[in-house]
Amino acid sequence: MSEGSSGPTLVWLRDDLRLADNPALHAAVERGGPIVVAFLLDDESPGFRPLGGASHWWLHQSLSALAADLDDHGNRLILRRGPAATEIPRLVADTGATAVTWTRRYGKAAREVDAALKSALTDDGVEAHSFQGSLLFEPWKIQTGSGTPFKVFTPFYRACLEQPEPRHPYPKPHTVEAPDAFPASDDLDDWALLPTKPDWAGGLRDRWEPGEASAHRTLEQFVHGDLADYGDRDFPAHDTTSHLSPHLRFGEISPFQVWHRLRGDLPESARKQAASFLREVVWREFNHTVLFANPDLATANYRPEFDGFPWAKPQASELEAWQQGRTGIPLVDAGMRELWQTGVMHNRVRMVVASFLIKNLLIDWRIGERWFWDTLVDADEANNPGNWQWVAGSGADAAPYFRVFNPVLQADKFDKQREYIRQWVPEIDTDDYPEPIVDLKESRRHALDAYADMRSKAGL
């Protein structure tokens, strides 16, 4: 980038709500001169998926934390709402910016908006620079020997490890030089991202503290605590997972920071589990690479033969029982209540509740994906549909459809003492607990019959 003496740099934030290891901000600081930092809520451009309720709650808190951090660094967070194609040029005009920087996104609609904007800004004599900041390995760089996207995770993982080591994180700037005058900004409260009637976010407030500082505390707590027991992560009552997923989703911490922290100085007890955890970080990369090649991942089967699957017409009573944790299947109900209360669910249990919806109730995976999109604080445009399709058998490197998770056997194996179940379903041993809404054995047989029917029609 050229020297910034000719005008301010506009740093356009999206899913990178942090000051440290933010390459777009780092480039602006290196350029020199005043910096305008802006977040644009673009939920109007065609192809963009509006955030769900839990994500809106997280976004409000994260933006509040970021605004306070910028104040401490001598600057201010500017908020605007509207399509990027009109709002970014308007911000350029309002600030006299001669350069705009941002972190790259990989969904089709986002790529198209960014490319058109970069072209328009360049035509107007404004520098426009995008940077890699949300993925360790950009999708077009990790391909098979024949130059096609990977469809299976393990060879994708090996290909990532054969790449040069991901760059080291950029430091947090000491100051962020402010312009002589700030442009007009929306008031965050006016965006009405927080629930009010009713206010259902009490459990989220109790469970989470969004923001960059909290993200790094969470990482350090994991490194010095649960990482040593990460091998027990399938046991939901032990809860030895990292709790980093929503922080990564909103870019309060970067995958580069996580990668190098786990490859750095670790407690002796934690070292052997670091590689297992980083493998899960690469699974996140895999889902984003799949999304890059399949932009309709949330709405279309990755495996087209599943287009002929005979889904049942969902019964409102069954779907509501699943959503509300009233199925009469204890592990399923515990997971769905954890989700509603905290905005997350243990990963092992996510697979169980998804399998129950898809295979025991024969309800289309897209219906479950939409519920998770609305209720998860870590709802991600690649991971959410990618993982649902994995369970459904319709996705990349998917579990075979005939693998039906038995929630009773899963509870026997991973929650033998029923600690997790009793935490979320305290009435489990009382007459208040409902009878199962479906027979697990019979519904499994119906699911396998439906799968065989689909394969027959597809000529497989």
UniProtKB/TrEMBL annotation:
Coiled coil: none annotated. InterPro entries: Crypto/Photolyase_FAD-like_sf, Crypto/Photolyase_N_sf, Cryptochr/Photolyase_FAD-bd, Cryptochrome/DNA_photolyase_1, DNA_photolyase_1_CS_C, DNA_photolyase_N, Rossmann-like_a/b/a_fold. The keyword Flavoprotein applies. Keywords: Chromophore, FAD, Flavoprotein. Residues 7-136 form the Photolyase/cryptochrome alpha/beta domain. Its cofactor is FAD. Pfam families: DNA_photolyase, FAD_binding_7. The keyword Flavoprotein applies. It comes from the Bacteria. PANTHER family: CRYPTOCHROME (PTHR11455), CRYPTOCHROME CIRCADIAN CLOCK 5 ISOFORM X1 (PTHR11455:SF9). Belongs to the DNA photolyase family. This is Deoxyribodipyrimidine photo-lyase.
